[in-house]
Each structure stands twice: as structure tokens, then as C-alpha cells.
Amino acid sequence: MSVLVFLENWDGKFKKLSFELVSYASKVAEMLGQQAIALSIGNVDASELEKLATYGADKVINIENDMIKAFDEQTYTSMIAEVAQKIGANVLVLANNNSGKALAPRLSVRLKAGIVSGVSKLPLSLSPFVVYKKVYSGKAFANVSIKTEIKILTLAQNSFEVVESPKTFVHEKLDIQPDGNLMKTRVKEVQKQSGKILITDADIVVSGGRGMKSPDNWAPLVELADLLGAATACSRPVSDEGWRSHDEHTGQTGKIIAPNLYFAIGISGATQHLAGVSSSKFIVAINTDKDAPIFEAAQYGIVGDALKVLPKLVEAVKEMKSK
Amino acid sequence: MKILVCISNVPDTTTKVKFVDDSKKLDVIGIQWVINPWDELALTRALELKDDASNGIQTVTVGHVGLISSDPTLRKALAIGADDAIRVNFESGDAYNIAAELAEAIRNENFDIILCGIESSDHNGSTVGGMLSEFLGYPSVTGVSSVKIEGGQLVITREIDGGKEILSVPTPFVAVVQKGIAKEPRIAAMRGIMMARTKPIKVVEPLAIESLTEVINYEMPKPRAACKYINADDAGQLISLLQNEAKVF
Ligand SMILES: Cc1cc2nc3c(=O)[nH]c(=O)nc-3n(C[C@H](O)[C@H](O)[C@H](O)COP(=O)(O)OP(=O)(O)OC[C@H]3O[C@@H](n4cnc5c(N)ncnc54)[C@H](O)[C@@H]3O)c2cc1C
Ligand SMILES: Cc1cc2nc3c(=O)[nH]c(=O)nc-3n(C[C@H](O)[C@H](O)[C@H](O)COP(=O)(O)OP(=O)(O)OC[C@H]3O[C@@H](n4cnc5c(N)ncnc54)[C@H](O)[C@@H]3O)c2cc1C
User: In a mutagenesis test of the B interface, which of A15, A91, A108 is the best target, namely the one with the most B β-carbons within 10 Å?
Assistant: First the structure.
């Protein structure tokens, strides 16, 4: 019996999310007295796979095959299910991102395994197997028990500390032939923006709302973000009005994020906005209205005009960096 | 072609949630029930596709697993423009039995396109769509921001990290949709509300499939530390607090 963690790669590379997943799986395996086995599908160099051992993978399995370049949900499900059965996995760990959201539910049906998605903590108990998850978009949490022998967990991004626990790198290449008949989705075109920090990956996010008044006022906000190596984000009306691009919209109907630090600048803090950012470790609110609900969610607040405050923050960060 | 839009019936997004029975159950008193926001957008997109006759969409059906108490929400969907509804008369336990019941109820209905939302705003599972596709053995695409029909062929946009992919898919298939699928949710006009009264809601008796998970109890979030205010004139002080106290950089 073992814990199987599935790792997606981005052009052959892993990222912080991957190491969070391996760290988490390795801790769950430790609780169960089992091995954590990492599974990678696609072309990834051995040196990159070796990193997984650093974060606690007892063994790294990879499947490489030219047929599996495109992410076809049925094909991937079949391959992961085959590995899970082969190694006798009783816990599967995936990311709670779009790929995990595609694969985990299919695996749940395939393996008749109960699933809890978006977990942020280690299981509270093993028998019964109880995990803690966010519900009602962060307005509450639930302790959920999984009743089946095989369990599937998807881990919320940025919720579990990356911890090194180096293991000897044990690498196994598995030759699993995907079933060509299953591959029904065809990728016609890929459009990628490069160089931009993804909001979902960023440790710091600087976000602006309608209180920024006009799209022309964004320069100091962007400068602050650049200085901090942060991603920029916005509230829904800001993207609806075309002040900022749609992929910056955070909240219930946009991106759900959990950075270490979230700046909410000229954002009132509507419940649908908070639904996307309430898992941030720290929230800074800058708002002219001292009664704005965002201050209830924030740990640090400045009551004032964003357009006057932002340049001061930019100066202070420059000063901090010069030291 | 026939489209099915799967609908989750959820508390209005501004609801302050409370729990009863030793925190085992949601306190439903006073809750305003609505169509899950993603499903409302999915329905809007389905109706847009149907509006253009060249797409050849015959019907847009909404599917739901829930008790009769969900009917007002289904009527709203019919008022917005869905042609009919299918409700599996079942008090759901978890996403697994919802998807299983739904799959059995629609298996022989020959829907070509099934739309599910990426997340239901109550249990935040993001699992019903994927499970439904697996039960039906249909291909699926998750994270869909656009569904178009070009020359009788489905063209799908999937959001990926830092970009998008344009895909072609066969029917029948399941799209799990997210931001971008439609701009603004369509609202019911008076005529739609009148017409909805006579549109059919087909009630299917459940197989009573067991759930695989169980909520033991709910908890409210731990109250956050009170906000620490920094004077706007010394805004720079915030940066040193973030550095030395919060230690975020
Ligand atoms: C189903 C549904 C889903 C939704 N999903 C989302 C979502 O995903 N994300 C989202 O963001 N919203 C969402 N909304 C909309 C949400 O309800 C709010 O309308 C929205 O978040 C408000 O955006 P805002 O804070 O930028 O603007 P406002 O609410 O207009 O707030 C502007 C704030 O700026 C302050 N301000 C004004 N001038 C200044 C200044 N000079 N300096 C500093 N502060 C200033 C004001 O005091 C105010 O607090 C959703 C709504 C619904 C019904
Ligand atoms: C009073 C009450 C108590 C409940 N208690 C529980 C509970 O204890 N545990 C639990 O897991 N669930 C419970 N539910 C069910 C809950 O409402 C959800 O429908 C269900 O859990 C699926 O949520 P999810 O977050 O997993 O869905 P997701 O997988 O996030 O939903 C994604 C998409 O699937 C479709 N979908 C979701 N639900 C349905 C549905 N019912 N019918 C048709 N399509 C649907 C929609 O398209 C939705 O956008 C309860 C519901 C009520 C009203």
C-alpha cells in the first residue's frame, strides 16, 4: 500500500506547487507508515525528477510517450488508474488546479474512491479518515470523512508548506501505452503569454478595484507589484469595464488564490470578492472608506486615497530594497 | 443537437451561512436559493448557441439532482429560456452520488453537449462534471472558457496556466466551464416567466446510490486578528511592518 501523488509538468519543469504536493503526500505516507510514490507523465529530465526525492518521494515513476503530448482527460485518467492499481495506492493526491479538477473526479469513479477536494491540512484522523476542507467559498469549513478504501485528495495551492525531507532517488520508467482510441480531444492551437507571473502561483498579489478610479491610474500599482516580484490582479468590475485584462479578475467567478500577501487597493471587499482571496495569509486593505468590509478581512489597513498612498509604498519598498 | 446544462441549487452568494444540529446541517431558514453562478453562465451560453439557428441546437435542458424544494430554481432556469428540466428526486449525499444519479437519469436521453460549472458555491467540490463524464464514458474538457460551433464542429477553448488551448472535440462530450463562457447571465423576461409555468419538469426516481464521503460537521472560520491601522501619511511604515512583523518579505 502506498500514497500516489500525480505531478503535472510545465514544459518539462516542476514548480512550487509540485513540491507542495510531494511534501504533502510524503507527510500523509508517514502518517500511514507507507511510501510516497510520485508519478510524472510526459518528458521530464531525470535531474528534474530527482527534485521530487528531495521533498520526500520514496520513488519516482515516469511515463514518457510521444503519444501523450496533449492533455487528454480520459487518457491521463487511464494511465494514472493503471499505476494506482499496480502499486496498490490507497491514497491519491492531486493538485486542486484545472488538471487536478479534470482527473481526480474521473479517478474517483474509476477506482470507486471517495474524494475531498481543496484540502489545506493533513488528515485529522486516519480511521475514520477525516479531512478538513473549505466550503461555502471560505465562509465555513467542513470535516469530511471518506468511507472508501481508496481515498483521493486534491490539495489547495499555497496552503501546505514545502518541506525538504531528502530520500534516495529511486526512479522507475514505466512503459504504459495509452489507448489511442480514447484520445478524442485534439489540440488545434496553443496561445501562451510568457514572462507574466501567474496570479495563482504568486506569493504576493497586488490588486486594484474600482477605487482606483481610472485605468490610467494603474502605473504605481504595477510598479509596486514589479518591485515586490508580485502578480497584479483586480476586482470583477475592473475587468468587466476593460480597465485590466480578464485573467486578473479574482473572486468567486474569477481566480481563487491563496498568496502569502494580498493588497486590496480600492476594493470594497464584497463577499464574492473575498470568496477568491480569503485564504491569503495576510491581507492589506487601502480604502478611503473606514467602514469598507475589506477591513474586516484585513490584518493591515490604511484609510486613505490609494492614489496618494501608492507612491509612498513604492518609495518605501525602494528604500527597503536599497538596504 | 441537444444540450444539457447541469444545475446546482445554492444559497445566494451573499448569504451569511449558519449551521444547526451540532453544526451538522446548514441552517436553511431565510436562505434565498439561486442557480449556481457558473451554471447560470453555462445556461446563458447554451441559449446563445441555440439562438443562432445555423448551430442546429434543438433543445436546451437543465438537469438537477435534488428534492422538490429545488423546483423554484429550476423554474427560474426555464424562465431564462431552457426548454425543459429533468430532476432526479434525491437528497444528495455527495458529488459522487449526484453524478451517478444524474448519469443514470440521462444515459438514454442522447445529449450531445453537457455543460457543468467548474465549481458549486456550496461544497466547492469541482468534481460533479468530471465524475459525470466518467460515468457516461464521454470525453471531457475542464476549464472551458468558450464553446463554439463552427461548420457543425465543436470548438472549445481551454484555459491553461498562462494561456489557452483551442481544441476540437467530438460529441457527445462534457464541458466543465469557467470564466469567459458567457459575459453576463441572461435574466428572465416577463414572457419567459409566464412560459416557464407550462414547461415540463420531468421527475426521475433515484436509484439511491450511496455516497462515498460524509460531512461530520461544519466549522466557522477562526476570527482573524483585528486589523492594524497605519496612518495614511506614514504609509511607508506598512512596508516595514510587512517585513519585520508579518515577515512576508
Ligand atoms: C454572482 C456574483 C459573482 C460575483 N463575482 C465576483 C468576483 O469574482 N470578483 C469580484 O471582485 N466581484 C464579484 N462580484 C461583484 C461584487 O459583488 C462587487 O460588486 C465587486 O467586488 C466590487 O468591486 P470593487 O470593490 O472594485 O468596487 P466597489 O464595490 O465600487 O468598491 C470600490 C471601493 O473603493 C473605495 N475607494 C473609492 N475611492 C478610493 C480611493 N481614491 N482610494 C482608495 N479607495 C477608494 C471605495 O470606498 C470602495 O470601498 C460578483 C457579484 C455577483 C452577484
Ligand atoms: C441542505 C443541503 C445539504 C447538503 N449537504 C451536503 C453534504 O453534506 N455533502 C455534500 O457533499 N453535499 C451536500 N449537499 C449537496 C450540495 O448542494 C452539492 O450539490 C453537492 O455536494 C455537489 O457539490 P460540489 O461542490 O461537489 O459540486 P461541484 O462538483 O463543485 O459542482 C460542479 C458542477 O456540477 C453540477 N452540479 C453540482 N451539483 C449538482 C446537482 N445537485 N445536480 C445537478 N448538477 C449539479 C453543476 O453544473 C455545478 O456547477 C447539500 C445540499 C443541500 C441543499
Answer: A108
Domain A204-322 in this protein, CATH class: alpha beta
The SS3 assignment for A133 reads strand
At residue A106's C-alpha, the angle toward residues B38 and A191, to 5°, is 60
CB contact B16 to A (< 8 Å): yes
Sign of the alpha-carbon dihedral angle for A286, A290, A295, A298: positive
State the CATH number of the domain containing residue B43. Answer: 3.40.50.620
pTM (2 d.p.): 0.95
**How many angstroms separate the CA atoms of A213 and A217, rounded?**
7
Number of domains present in the structure of chain B: 1
**Binding-site residues, ligand 1, Cβ < 6 A:** A 209-211, 235-238, 251-254, 266-268, 270, 272-273, 276, 286-289, 292, 305-307; B 13, 37
pLDDT in tens, chain B (249 residues): 999 999 999 999 999 999 999 999 999 999 999 999 999 999 999 999 999 999 999 999 999 999 999 999 999 999 999 999 999 999 988 999 999 999 999 999 999 999 999 999 999 999 999 999 999 999 999 999 999 999 989 999 999 988 899 999 999 999 999 999 999 999 999 999 999 999 999 999 999 999 999 999 999 998 888 999 999 999 889 999 999 999 999
Q: Would residue B79 count as lying in a domain?
A: yes
Contact B199/A at CB under 8 A:
no
ipTM of the complex: 0.96
For CATH 3.40.50.1220, the residue range(s) in chain A are 204-322
Of all ligands present, the nearest one to the C-alpha of B32 is 2
Contact A34, A59 (CB under 8 A): no
Architecture category of domain A2-182 in CATH: 3-Layer(aba) Sandwich (3.40)
